Structure formats: C-alpha cells, structure tokens
Amino acid sequence: MQVTGGRIRPNVGDPSVLYYLDDLTVGQRFVSPTHELDAAQIKAYAAQFDPQPFHLDEDAARGTFFGGLAASGWHVASITMKLLVAGGAPIAGGVIGGGGEIAWPKPTRPGDVLHVESEVLEIAPSRSKPNRGMVTVRSETLNQKGEIVQVITIKLVVFRRPEGAIAEHAP
Description:
Structural class: alpha+beta
Number of strands: 7
C-alpha cells in the first residue's frame, strides 16, 4: 500500500504498481501486507539456520534472555524481505540492497502478525550510471500491537524508467 496525504492505496499483488527512481520522493511511505508467525515457523527456520535453544524449544527458552520462544532476528529479516517484495517497497526491477543497518528492539513471538512500514529517506541519482540511483529507505517491521520488532535502514539500487515506458503507477 502507499500512504499519500493520509490515504492508503493498495499495492499488494498488482505488478503494474511499481516505482522507478524518478517516481519516488523523499517522505513517500509504503505499507506491506501482513504475515502471521507461529511456533512451527519459528522452530523450522531456527532448526535450519539459527539453532539456538530460545528459537527451538519453549521450555529451554524460558530460562534465557528472551524468557520464552522468540523468532531469530534473521527469520524476521527474511519475513521483512518477503513483505517488502509484496508491496512494502514496490520497486521496479526488484528490491536490490546495497548495504544498510539493522536492529531488533523487541523479540518477535509466536502469534505475532507482522507488517512493514517503509519511508523513503534519500534519493541519490548515480553520476556514473545514469540509468539508476541509490534510494535510502527506513523500514519498520511492526507486530499487531504496533510494537517495532525490527528496524532496517537500507540503500536500494533503483533503476530509472526505461525510455519510452509509460508510468503505470497511481500518482
């Protein structure tokens, strides 16, 4: 979805609603669809990619820093990527990272319903590659309570609209 002037426009599932470098403006905001996380997803991801007790077993997790089962931060980052691609950052040519910073201020728990809110912070057209630029985006992943569980500020490679192509996004 795109938030403009207090209105939210859906962007989910519409491949024609994609933004090129020249379509973006500083302050522009996008809101993703949601993803509900359950214990089975947390444990399956952890078993394969982050096998620590607080991600794998409720009983073992109680006695840890987290005080209960918590999703791996990298799992949350993967879900965030899925949500960005699904409309939280509707960039033509894909969500192509060029570096960034990530933080997890709060644990993500079973039953959390996540969505991503993104804001364009900076747009820098490339001087050496005129067909693209770098766009800095801050994306907050929030749970159903509105609590921020992840913040990522990332530089994205964003392409200019090809010559002759017609803008297909809603202004």
